[in-house]
Amino acid sequence: MLLGERAARALNIATVALIYAVAGALIASGRLTPFAAIIVVALPRAWRAVALLRRPRPASPPKGYVGWPLWYHRASLMHNRLFGWLYILGLAGGAARPGAWR
């Protein structure tokens, strides 16, 4: 509400991009286990969420759409949930095999 719809959508797009960029930088610098690179599996859902965020919300819900007025929520949630579980899985893999990448 404070930012406005357009700025909020831009912030969300930047956030999605940053989580991958920061994870990649941390893996490259050796501060995060390479097992965490499994997050790339969530990229197709990230692209879908970003594609949706790039467009303004429709004036009315499409026929059969459940969850109105949370137009962007479903795509973002689907991505965030998958990304989060994959990130945790990557961290667990790194904890289970700490010397695997040395």
Which terms would index this structure?
102 residues, mainly alpha, 58% helix
How would you sum up this structure, described in words?
This protein has one domain (5-54, 66-96). Helix 1 (5-28) packs antiparallel against helix 2. The protein is elongated, with a radius of gyration of 17 Å. By secondary structure, it is mostly helical. The protein contains three helices and no strands.
Set out the fold topology:
Blueprint: H1 5-28, H2 43-53, H3 73-96
Helix pairs in contact: 1-2, 2-3
List low-pLDDT spans.
none
Radius of gyration: 17 Å
Order of secondary-structure elements: HHH
Number of strands: 0
In the residues, how many domains can be counted?
1
Query: What is the tally of helical segments?
Result: 3
Mean pLDDT: 92
Helix content: 55-70%
Beta-strand proportion: under 5%
**Major sheet size, sense and barrel closure:** none
